[in-house]
Amino acid sequence: MRDARSRVRRPIGLRLWLSGGWITLLIIGAVLAPLIAPHDPLYQDLFAGRMPPVWVDGADPNFLLGTDSLGRDVLSRILYGARLALTVALVAGTLTCLIGATLGLIAGYYRGWVDMVISRLVDIWMAFPPVLFAILLIAVLGTGLTSIIIAIVVIDWTRFARVVRAEAMTQGTMDYVASAQVVGRTKAGTMFAEILPNVLPTIVALLTLEMGIAVIVEAILSFVNLSISTDAPTWGGMIAEGRTSVHQAWWVLVFPLITLFLTVLSFSQLGEGLKDYFDPVLR
Amino acid sequence: MSGMIYEIRDLRLSFPDMAHKPVFGAAPQIEVLKGLSFDVPKGEVLGIVGGSGSGKSTLGRAMIRLLEPDSGTIRFEGTDITHADEPALRPLRRRFQMIFQDPMSSLNPRRRVGGIIAGPLRLQGVQDTSAKVLEALDMVGLPRSFAARYPHELSGGQRQRVGIARAIALRPDFILADEIVSGLDVSSQAQVLNLLEELVRELGLTLAFISHDLSVIRRLCSRIIVMYRGEIVENAPTAQVFDAPQADYTRELLQAIPLPDPDQIWA
């Protein structure tokens, strides 16, 4: 029996194609960086400093996107920088999501004193200015990949906790939750089997958003030289270097900036696209 | 004692009034059920009517222990379940089920119909779930292919049938139906009521039917409890309630029933 309410297959939207495409491209570039990068990202050649990208007069065809003031290849540095950016995005994003979403789910569904404790903690946490808090944490923990990840998780779990709590509270008042109790499902069972699937689209959208934010935070930290070691290629570090010579060599600033921008945009659009795609209820 | 599904004595339940909660200290309590006593014999179709805020839904939710009463006793087939905790209730839960008012919110939007009906069966350790699911769909008059559908792909009446299928799949002794037709249009209402009547007869169910609509209750129920502000003002067989109402409030309710011909009176 088919009628107007039968399932409609939705096409994968342009949004999902573009954002997914860029992220995939970036992941391939990052993973294969040692194979496809045209130069060693750390190799300095002072005689080939500030070479413009190939389509500008006076360029060296060996350096597609030009070189910085120390003669390092911009394209290779962007590719190697993607390794750090994506590692931070995936690891920090996932950890933040796991911790924040779990706490939010428990607070929103169990309510009572558990909710009181978690919510007050979130309130207090959010009173700290996030970037200063991150810099403070790095100063205490020392620089390095683990420190960056810890800083992002410690700062941003509240984002998940708040949103997931609100969503779990809404779902908790629905009758399907009461009906699960009527048939004898345990409280924890109801939370995982009934509520979690309904909160999942929100969590997915937030997760990719968080990955974008993690990329930004990593860029900010490397911009102020609090990321990994100073000479390692990072997008934030490149932007900081490019800023000082923007009038002589704009490409050193512009290309990492565009990459950063597209990556963050793609992550947030990917989340929205996935949320729509996986929701069985047509909006 | 024997032959009674429910024995309810002096049931009291109150909610905290958060609107009048002082900054420090506990919120004042509003008594919603003010000492109710009644019995539900096996096989009876009991109607519970009352206006909005009369406590009829609260009474229903206390009977299937979604809410815990403050005092009084609720005996289900002789077992005191007034203050039983969830683990103690779990084995009993398959014997009293509930059909909810809003079938959109009572069916998990991320589950297929088959999964929704199978859920209770699996939880209660019933073997051969998929056959039981198809059987339940047959009984409520839905095509078997609907097992693969999501709730939003069904109409309101079809969704309420899924709610009924979920409740009867466990073959309970008692079903509470809380305003189950108030969200449906008149023709779907009639179909769902016919179905319910049939199931009560075939399965020998005891049913408590909560509604604000006396004409619906009159069709279905053998006895009526009329509630007003948390108290039972009338508890009598259907015919007697309609012919010789005792309480003033019942008379008011009867006069509020819209009749096809305004000059006609209930004969």
Automatic annotation (TrEMBL), chain A:
The organism's taxonomic lineage, starting at the top: Bacteria, Pseudomonadati, Pseudomonadota, Alphaproteobacteria, Rhodobacterales
Tell whether Transmembrane is among the UniProt keywords. Answer: yes
Record-given protein name: Peptide/nickel transport system permease protein
Q: Which GO terms describe its cellular component?
A: plasma membrane
Segments spanning the bilayer are 12-37, 84-110, 131-155, 203-228, 249-270
- Check the UniProt entry and state the signal peptide residues, or none: none
Name the InterPro entries on file: BP-dependent_transpt_permease (IPR050366), MetI-like (IPR000515), MetI-like_sf (IPR035906)
What biological processes does GO assign it?
Answer: peptide transport; protein transport; transmembrane transport
UniProtKB/TrEMBL annotation, chain B:
CDD domains of this UniProt entry? ABC_NikE_OppD_transporters
According to the UniProt entry, its GO molecular function terms are: ATP binding; ATP hydrolysis activity
User: For the ABC transporter domain, which residue ranges apply?
Assistant: 13-254
Tell me the keywords, alphabetical order: ATP-binding, Nucleotide-binding, Transport
Identify the Pfam families for this entry.
Answer: ABC_tran
BP-aspect Gene Ontology terms: transmembrane transport
Q: Which family does it belong to?
A: Belongs to the ABC transporter superfamily.
Question: What name does UniProt use for this protein?
Answer: Peptide/nickel transport system ATP-binding protein
- Which organism is the protein's source? Lutimaribacter saemankumensis
